[in-house]
Amino acid sequence: MSAAVASSSLLPELIQHFSHIITVFLMVSGLYIVIARGNLIKKLVGLSVFQTSVYLLYIAPGKIIGGTAPILASQYGVYSNPLPHVLILTAIVVGVATLALGLTLAVRLREAYGTIEEDEILALDQQAELEE
Amino acid sequence: MAIAVVAMIRLRNLFAVVVLSGIYSFLMATLLVALDAVDVAMTEAAVGAGVSTVLLLGALHLCRSEEAKPAHRPWLPLAVSASTAGLLIYGALGLPDFSDPEAPIHQHVAPRYLQNEVDVPNVVTAVLASFRGYDTLGETTVVFTAGAGIVALLRRRRKGGGQEPPKP
């Protein structure tokens, strides 16, 4: 009985926060790729998935149902919030810059070690330490 | 989009992962159009789906495009991710409802931005260029630093020869 009441009050709550739930799902899957996968390029892809989830986190609360994009025109009165859009425009460009830097590091590591798998790099490091 | 992400986790062929991340970026751009963020959607489609994919493909060209089998079971990362998800959803339940016009985000500076003080009809451009110009200065600094770092790494590579993925 009480469980039924709880679920009936939880369901509309979850629908109201659907955008947050999608954001959390994307964020956590990006985190999972970064932690669980050893390949450096795949880690960077995971990092960019994490980043796009942050875009969604910022943009979604600015939306007003029935509003339009924030380009002023006399026939519209309600606009979505323009401030998150500005912040995220900056974030996208910075994200690509960091992605490029990370990829360059991966390519350099591949030149130095001949592999971009984290485990193999660590093993090579340990081997070098033992030989010293 | 969720399907694309799950496939990205499962697949070990990095080429497929990169192409899927391009598709994912386009889907994200579509979603941003639906959320009225047309400027952001345009940038995401051009930069996220275009430049990032080119960069990733350039890096793949220089590296092996097959991922090794994971050495250990993924239970610990899975547990960390799941508990983070639980905490975040619990926290998100305290946030304002979706599309609530009374939410704090719509009360603070946004109404003033929408008054068209600088005579540019696209409010995003007006805020970017007039109200928050320092953001763009910082962004340029970050991009410059990244470019300088890439050039520094590239210079050391030159001795060994080889090619560098294109810089944005």
Strand proportion of chain B, as a percent range, falls in under 5%
| Helix-strand sequence of chain B | HHHHHHH
What is the average of the pLDDT values of chain A? 79
Tally of separate domains of chain A: 1
Secondary-structure arrangement, i.e. CATH architecture of chain A: Orthogonal Bundle
Termini Cα gap of chain A: 69 Å
Strand content of chain A: under 5%
Task: Give the C-alpha Rg of chain A.
Answer: 22 Å
* Structural class by SSE content of chain B: mainly alpha
Overall outline of chain A: elongated
Give the tally of β-strands of chain B. Answer: 0
Structural class of chain A: mainly alpha
Total discrete domains of chain B: 2
What is the CATH class name of chain A? Mainly Alpha
Largest interface: A-B, 82 and 93 residues
User: Helix proportion of residues of chain A, in percent?
Assistant: over 70%
Radius of gyration of chain B, whole Å: 21 Å
SSE order of chain A: HHHHH
Instruction: Enter the CATH topology name of chain A.
Output: Helix Hairpins
Commentary on this structure:
The complex is a heterodimer of chains A (132) and B (168). Chain A has 132 residues and is mainly alpha-helical. Chain A has one domain (2-131): Helix Hairpins (Orthogonal Bundle). Chain A is 78% helix and 0% strand. Chain A has helices spanning 2-16, 18-36, 40-62, 82-113, 118-131. In chain A, helix 2 (18-36) runs antiparallel to helix 3 (40-62) and helix 3 runs antiparallel to helix 4. The longest helix of chain A has 32 residues, at 82-113. Chain A is elongated and about 75 Å long. Chain A starts with a helix and ends with a helix. The relative contact order of chain A is 0.10. Mean pLDDT of chain A is 79; it is low at 1-5. Chain B folds into 2 domains: 1-67, no CATH class; 103-168, no CATH class. The model of chain B has no long low-confidence stretch (mean pLDDT 76). Chain B is 67% helix and 0% strand. In chain B, helix 1 runs antiparallel to helix 2 and helix 2 runs antiparallel to helix 3 (38-62). Chain B is mainly α and 168 residues long. The chains are: A mainly alpha (132), B mainly alpha (168).
